[in-house]
Amino acid sequence: MRPVGSKYLLEEPLGRGASGTVWRARPTGTQDTPTGTEAPEATVAIKVLREELAGDPDVVLRFLQEHSALRRLTHANIVRTRDLVVEGDLLALVMDFIDGPDLHRYLREQGPMEPLRAVRLTERIADALAASHADGVLHRDLKPANIMLADTCTDDAGDIRPMLTDFGIARLADAPGLTRTHEFVGTPSYIAPESALGHQPTSAVDIYSAGILLYELIAGQAPFQGGTALEILHRHQSEEPERPAGFPQPVWTVVEHCLRKDPLERPSAASLARALRAITAETGEPALLPESTADPAALLPPDPQPTLLRAPMQPLRTDTVVTGTPHGGDATAGGAGAVAEPPESRPQERNEDAAEAPSSGRPPNCPHCGAAQPAPEAAADPRSPSARTGEAGRPRRRILLKTSLALVVTLVLAGVAVWSIPPLHDWVTGGGSMRHQIGHWYTSLKHWAGSLR
């Protein structure tokens, strides 16, 4: 066993992914779990991030800043984040332990699902996404390997409860130090077309991945396969998925809406969950859904306000002490991964160190953090007309001030010149006609200039 920080001991590796290794672990001071017995409540899953990530200060700061938002994700279908360990070159995420395989391993061993089970599982994932989007958190790497299956927690229909994990790991790839080696965030078979093009990510990228996932659960493979990663990304942008034989029409309608190329045409996660729930509301098998029932398309309007990716926040105050954070990780390659019991409901936590940005309208999601929450009075939306007017007015005021100052200086210098140079003084004070004044001034100036020789 090996210690992680001062609070945890690693026991055995559970899986490895691109971002690090997941370990079964326990807090220090607890007794070893006897072989063959159920894991105690104290058992946790810890993802130790690879050194490239842990050694990047931008990555560490990003996770510290995301601490409050990720701790708020307490949905029953989201793996709960317990702690963040930052110690020297070590960065580790402490999560609840789930004694079950990930969905990728399950599909590899069991094959495709029956449409009914696939719809119900995707419905729960959509509920989890709706909760995370409401908190302004995007997943951005939704795929079977990032969905744990709590096989000891089934409902009356015998469905396995999916647990969505690895929130925040895709967020790591946005760190400046890593963009040199990562052209996009996500996995090629599940990535949305706009993400491959480097566009601003919104909650629509998770909806696209959910559509790919639902397709794969029933068809046995993702719709765009084969070739290099670049070729797969090109297919996402240029090809439409084909409906496999035997794929239920109502479910295919849902998949089509999720896989729209234009992100503004995709539904919200909440609408997706409602549509999937409606498909199985009157029958136990989606393939037998009566034609007279509500068309799922009517329940899948485009999301009028997709959640935006949270922008990097301001640095934490120097007096802030953070001992815990985010979830997730890259795909756990098979094996058990992270939590057993659903988290208890508790008051929402708010990070006082996070820079919150204004919301508007519904209120709409904030352009900086993606969350629909009230804005502090001191903060103004830089896109608002009043903000633009103020920004444009400041340069004009500065120009006016400088012009006025230059005019005053010019008048003072002119007065000094009139008082000090006799021809000018005589011209101003002599009186007479303009012609006489000019002639007198010219003669006086000529004599004055001659006297200087």
What is this entry, summarized?
The chain is α+β, with helices and mostly antiparallel strands and 453 residues long. Helix content is 36%, strand content 12%.
Question: Could you walk me through the main structural features you see in this protein, from its secondary elements to its overall organization?
Answer:
- The protein has 453 residues and is of the alpha+beta class.
- The chain folds into two domains: 2-343, Transferase(Phosphotransferase) domain 1 (Transferase(Phosphotransferase), domain 1, Orthogonal Bundle); 397-451, no CATH class.
- Helix content is 36%, strand content 12%.
- The protein has 14 helices and eight strands.
- The chain has helices spanning 51-54, 57-65, 67-71, 103-110, 115-134, 169-172, 193-196, 204-219, 229-238, 249-258, 269-279, 385-420, 422-429, 434-451, and strands at residues 2-4, 8-16, 20-27, 44-49, 81-87, 90-96, 147-154, 160-164.
- The chain has a six-stranded antiparallel β-sheet with strand order 1-2-3-4-6-5.
- A hairpin with a 5-residue loop joins strand 7 and strand 8.
- Helix 5 packs antiparallel against helix 8.
- The radius of gyration is 33 Å and the shape is elongated.
- Mean pLDDT is 74; it is low at 33-39, 177-183 and 312-392.
Please supply descriptive tags for the structure shown above.
453 residues; alpha+beta; Transferase(Phosphotransferase), domain 1; two-stranded antiparallel ribbon; 14 helices
What's the β-strand tally? 8
> In terms of structural class, how would the helical and strand content be classed?
alpha+beta
Helical proportion?
A: 25-40%
The sequence of SSEs as H and E is EEEEHHHEEHHEEHHHHHHHHH
Subunit organisation of the chains: single chain
CATH class wording of the largest domain: Mainly Alpha
Strands of the largest sheet, in order across it? 1-2-3-4-6-5
Radius of gyration: 33 Å
Unreliable stretches (pLDDT < 50, length at least 5) are 33-39, 177-183, 312-392
Distance between the termini: 100 Å
Strand content: 5-15%
